[in-house]
Amino acid sequence: MRRKLARKIRLYIRRYNRDSYRSNKIIEALNLIEKKKIILVYPKIKRYKIFLIEGNRGTYLTVKNTYCSCIGFTAGLMKDKIKPCYHLLAADMIKEDQAKKLYIEPEKLYEAIIKHGLESIIQS
Predict the structure, then answer these.
(1) How far apart are the first and last CA of the chain?
(2) What is the pTM of this model?
(3) Do residues 72 and 55 make contact, with C-beta atoms less than 8 angstroms apart?
(4) Integer Cα distance of 22 and 79 in angstroms
(5) Would you say 6 and 61 are in contact if contact means Cβ atoms under 8 Å apart?
C-alpha cells in the first residue's frame, strides 16, 4: 500500500510540474530554493532523500516524492486527496548542490525531532 501511495505521489508531482509551471505552488517552491531555505540531511537513510524545509509557518520534514510534515499535505492524505505541497515540489526540483547540508546521525535526528522539534535542528 505504501509503494502504491508513493508511486501515486511521484506521478502527481511529475504531472503537476509539467502542467502547472506558473502556479503559485511552483513559484513558492522556486522561492524556497532561491532563498536557500532547504537543508538536505546526510547521511541518507536507505534510499530516501530527507530535507528540512523552512516554510512560511514553520520547519517541515520532507521525504522527496513521498511525504511532508506540513498540515496541508497531511490533511490531504487524511481526505485521500493527494496534492503535493510546495515543500514537496521544492524537494523534487532542487539539485543537491543548491541545498544546504546537515550531517547528523539518524538516531540523533529522530531524538531531536521528538524532544525538541525541527527548529532546534536548524538552529544548532
Answers:
(1) 37
(2) 0.74
(3) no
(4) 26
(5) no
Residue 78 C-alpha cell reads as 487524511
* Segment among 70-74, 83-87, 107-111 with least mean pLDDT: 107-111
DSSP character at residue 23:
S
Q: Return the closest-CA partner of residue 120 out of 43, 61, 48.
A: 61
Grid cell listed for 103 = 550531517
CA distance 32 to 110: 24
Cβ proximity of 67 and 53 under 8 Å: no
Tens digits of residue pLDDT in 18-68: 655 557 787 888 889 999 999 998 877 777 888 999 988 888 999 888 889
